[in-house]
Amino acid sequence: MEKLFNRKITVALKYIVVAFVSAILLMLIMSSFAKREYAICGFLTIGLIAIAVTYLTNFSIPMKFFLPGMFFLFAFVVAPIVYTVAMSAFHYETGNYISKPDAISRILATGVRPDPNQTTFDIIIGEDSSKNLEILASDPTNKVYFLSTATTKTDLDPATVAVDENGDATIAPGFHALTPDQQNALDQQIANTRFQYSSSFFITIEGSNVASLKSQTLKYNSANDTFVNVQTGAVYKDNGVGNYANVASKTDFLQPGWRAPIWFANYAKLFTDPQIRKPLIQVFIWTMVFATLTVLTQFALGLLVAMIMNRKLFGRRIYRSIFILPYAMPSIMSILIWGGMFDTEFGAINHLFGTHVHWFQEALWARAAVIIVNLWLGFPYFYLISSGALQAIPAELSEAAAIDGASNRQIFRKITLPLLLQVVSPLLVASFAFNFNNFNIIYLLTGGGPTNTLGGAVAGSTDILISYTYKIAFGAGTQNLGLASAISVVIFFIIASISLYGIRRSKVLDSFK
Amino acid sequence: MKRWLKEDLWRHAIALVISFFVLFPIYLVFLSALSPTGSLQVTSFIPKSISFRNFHMLFTSPTIPYLVWMKNSIVIAGSVAIVSVVIGAASAFAFSRLRFKGKKQGLQLLLLVQMFPAILSLSAVYVIMERVYSFAPHIGLGTEPGLLLVYMGGAMGVNIWLLKGFVDSIPIELDEAAKVDGASAVQTYWLIFVPLATPILAVVSLLSFIGTFNEFILARLFLVDMHSRTIAVGLQAFISGQYATNWGPFAAGSIIASIPLVAIFLSLQRYIISGLTAGSVKG
Questions:
Q1: Which residues in A238-266 are b (16+ Cβ under 10 Å) and which e?
Q2: Assigned domain for B283 exists
Q3: Does the distance separating the beta carbons of B265 and A62 come in below 8 Å?
C-alpha cells in the first residue's frame, strides 16, 4: 500500500496543483486590479495567501481540508448573503439604483433644454490637431461658421470658408474629419461631449451631421448640495432617503435618485405601511398553511403507502418502482406537465372528471392544485423514509401488544406511530423548512396567481413569501431590492428558528459538544 | 387464508388508486409526446394515432438544439456533482474526525447559511458575476463556467452536511489504527477514508447531479444564448411565450431527459434512501 502511494509522486502532484491554482488566481488578481474591482481583488488575494500558507507549511492541518470548500462557500453563498443583508438597509429600488455621484451627473445630463429659438447646426465630426474631439459647425442661413471642442470655440471668417452646395463648411485649418468607422468607435464619447458655444449655452450632437444648442436648466451647487432650476427658481435638496426633493413640494423629485442608506426603514415599512403589511400578512398565512398542509399530506400518503407495502404483497416490487417515479423524474418537468393538466378548457383533469373548474383563476382551486401537485411530487420521499423506519421497529413490540389483546388500530396509535415519529419528526421539520421556501412549484405552476392586478396588488393567492419577495425584487413593475432584501432577512430568521427547533429535537447538535 | 385474501385485496385496491394518481400525468406525457398534433389538450385518453414526429423534431429541427441542451446539462450537472463532492468530502472529513478550535461555530455557520433563502441572494450573485465578467469574460455572467462556479458554491453547504452524516457512520477505529501506525491526517484521508467512502461519495454526487439538473432560475438568468441553455431552461421555453404552447416536443424532450435519471434512481434506490436520511438523522 505504501509503495503504491509513493510519497515523492504525491508531493510533486501536490505542488503542481498548488502552483496551477495559484497561477490562475494570480492572473485573476491582476486583471481584477486593473479593472478596479478592489473587493473581488482583495478576496482573491486573501485566497491566494491562504493557499500558500496552508499547503506550503504545516500551519493548520484542518485548513488543508477546509480551504477549497470555504473558498466557494464564501464567494458564492456567504458574500451574497452579506450583500443582501446590506442591501436591506438601503433605499434600493427602480429609480434609486445608482450611486449619488452617478445620480448627480445623470441629473445634470438630463437637466437641459433647447434654446428658445431651437437653433441647430449642420456639423462634421472630427478632431483638432491634438486629437481632441472637435466639430465643424455651420449655420448656412445666417452664414455662421465655427470650430468647437469641449473647451474652446474658434469662429471662422465666413468670407474665407470653403462651402459645399448646401452652404455648409467642408474644411477648416487644423480640422480632420472622422470616418464613419472612427465615429462608431467613439460613439459614447461623442454622444456625451458638450461642445463650447457661449457662457450659458452649449452644443450637443443629435445625429452624425446635426447638433443643437442647449442650456442647463438644473444647476448643481456642490457647496450646499442642492440643485436649482434656473427657469423656475425651484430649489431641490437632498431629502435623506435618496432623492433631491423640491423644498416647496414634498412630492416633486428629481430623477434619478440614488441608493441611500435608510437603515431600518425597510423593516419598519413591513410593519407600518398598510400597503405592504396587508399583503404580507396574507402571504405569510398562506405560506404557513401551504407548508403545513404539504408536509401533512405528503407524510400521510407516504406512511399509508409504506404500511401497505410493509408486508408481502403480490407485485410489491412493481408498485415500489411506480411509487418512486415522481421522486426520480426531473421535478421541473413534472410541475410544468401538471400545469398543463389543470388547464380549464383542455386540461386532462377537467376532462377526466367531467368538470369545468377554473383551476388557476379561482384562489381556492389554485391553492388546492398547488397542494395536489406537491403531494404527487413529495409523498415518495416520505414513503421511502417511513418504510425504512417501519422496518427498524422491532416486530416483538407489536406482537407483544397483540398478545395483550390490543387491536390493530391501538397498536398503530400507541406503538408504531410514536416510534415512527421519533425518527421522522426532524425530517418533517426539515421538509417544512424546505417547502416554506419552495419557490419552483409556485413559480412554475401558478406564478403565484391568481392575482388581482386590477387592484394593483403584487401578491397572488398562491404566492408564498419567497415567490412574493421574488416578485418585489425582480417583478414586472417597480423593483424594490431594498424591501425584498429586508423580507428575505425576516424569512431567514423564521426558517432559522424552525430549523433550530428541529435540530434540537434531532440531537444533531450533540455531536458538536 | 380467506382473511389474508381479504386484507390483500384492499391493500391492492389502495395501491392501485395511488398508482393511478402517480401514473396519470406520466401517461399523459407519453400521450402528448406520441400524438401527431403535439398538444396536451385531451380529447380522448386513448391515442387514435401514434407518431414519432415530436421525437424526430427534437433531433432534426435546426431551431431546437436539443442535443446541445442535453450535453450542456450533463456537462454542468456532472462537473458540479464531481467537483463539489470531491471538495465537500474533505471538509466533511475534517468536521467529522479532526479536533480543532471553532469546529462547533463552523458547523453552525454552515447550517445558518443554508437557511438563507438562496433565491433572494440571486441579485447579489448576479452583481458579483457581472463584475467578474468585466475582468474575466470567460468565467463571468452568461458563461457556463460562471454558472458552474455559482452552483459549486451552492452545492457545498448541502454536500458537506450530507457527507458529514456519512463519515460519522464510518467506524472511527479504522482511523485510530492508522494513527497508531503513524499516518498523518492527510494520509488517513486518502488511504483510509476515500477508499471506504467511495460508494457514499457516488451517491451524494448523484443527488447533487439531480439537484443541479433540476435547477432552473439561475440557469435561466445566466444562460441567455440558445446554444448554452440547459435542458430545463430550453424545454421550459417551449411552453412559455417564445414558442407559444408546444407540448409535443416538450413532452418528448422531458421523456428523453427523464429516462437516464429514472434508470439511475431505480437501480440505486437502496443507496439513495440511506443518503436521504443520513444527513438529518444521526445513525
A1: beeebbbbbeeeeeebbebbbbbebeebb
A2: no
A3: no
**CATH: 3.90.1150, 2.40.430, 3.30.1380, 1.10.533. Which one for A112-216?**
2.40.430
User: Averaged over A459-483, what is the pLDDT?
Assistant: 88
Q: Which of B232, B245, B257 has the alpha carbon at shortest distance from B38?
A: B245
Q: What pLDDT shows up at residue B243?
A: 45
State yes or no: pLDDT of A224 exceeds 80.
yes
Q: Do B153 and A73 touch (CB under 8 A)?
A: yes
CB atoms A323 and B18 under 8 Å: yes
Is there a contact between A476 and A488 (Cβ–Cβ < 8 Å)? no
CA-nearest residue to A499 within chain B is B115
Give contacts of B261 with chain A, Cβ < 8 Å: 328-330
B19 shares its domain with B99: no
Q: Is residue B58 part of a domain?
A: no
Q: Are residues B180 and B73 in the same domain?
A: yes
Q: Cα–Cα distance between A332 and B274 in angstroms, integer? A: 24
B105 shares a domain with B14: no
- Whether residues A348 and B113 touch (CB distance < 8 A) is answered with no
Tell me which residue range forms the domain holding B39. Answer: 2-51
Same domain, B18 and B116: no
Q: CA B262, CA B268: separation in Å to the nearest integer?
A: 10
CA atoms within 13 A on the CB side of B179: 8
Query: Does the distance separating the beta carbons of B90 and A65 come in below 8 Å?
Result: yes
Is domain A271-512 annotated with CATH 3.10.180.10?
A: no
Residues B131 and B162 in one domain: yes
CATH of the domain at B141: 1.10.3720.10
Max mean pLDDT range (A139-148, A296-305, A343-352, B35-44): A296-305
A305 CB within 8 Å of a chain B CB: yes
The pTM of this model reads 0.84
Helix (H) or strand (E) holding A227: strand A226-229
**Chain B residue closest to A334 (CA)?**
B25
Whether residue B62 has a cis bond before it, omega within 30° of 0 = no
- Whether residue A35 contacts residue B140, with contact meaning beta carbons closer than 8 Å, is answered with no
Residues B155-166 pLDDT 10s: 888 888 888 877
Residues B33, B157: one domain? no
